[in-house]
Amino acid sequence: MEPTPDYHRQFTVQLETEVTGWYNSFCNLLKSQREYVQVLNRWVQLTDWLVDGQQESNFLSIVQHLCEHWQFGMDHLPDKVAADAIKSFLFVIHSIVLQQADELLLQKKSERLEKKLQREIDLLNEMEKKFESNATGDEKTKYLSSVQLSRSMTLKNLRTSLPNVFQALTVFWSMCAQAV
Questions:
Q1: Domain boundaries, the chain
Q2: Superfamily of domain 6-179
Q3: How far apart (Å, rounded) are the C-alpha atoms in residues 119 and 129?
Q4: Is the pTM of this model over 0.85?
Q5: Any idea what the Cα angle at residue 85 is, between residues 80 and 88, rounded to 5°?
Q6: Dihedral Cα 168, 169, 171, 172, nearest 10 deg
Q7: Cβ–Cβ < 8 Å for 1, 148
Q8: What residues does the DUF632 domain cover (predicted)?
């Protein structure tokens, strides 16, 4: 089994960075949008008190109704579900990053041990060679198990979490379209 390549680890870290940015931008966008709609709604309500003419009052009443409808739509968006789905996906990616880091540490440790043992094997008699060979095999087995765990964990977690993210976002954007 081949170890996880460096570029794969780098892409996973980059994916974690991008999803973190996506999550933060998503939350900030909704917060800013809500604040904007609340301020606009409040401003329209305050200007309604200043109008003298009936025609202007009717126009402001329509604008006020539109702002209230917009604010109601914003207040009832399933943004928490969508944000939680993105955050859950981020945790999955983070666990993959940690597993790949553990794999790399074990790989380096295994390589160091192999080099050290190779030097010593040349100096030892047949009995010592056999003993050290078993130690190398044990560490190599741990390393190969870690590689296999990284691969299966990556595939499993991505297969299970990505559909949830896209489903939550589909519902969210559908509600957004209906709210506007």
A1: 6-179
A2: Arfaptin homology (AH) domain/BAR domain (1.20.1270.60)
A3: 11
A4: no
A5: 120
A6: 110
A7: yes
A8: 2-94
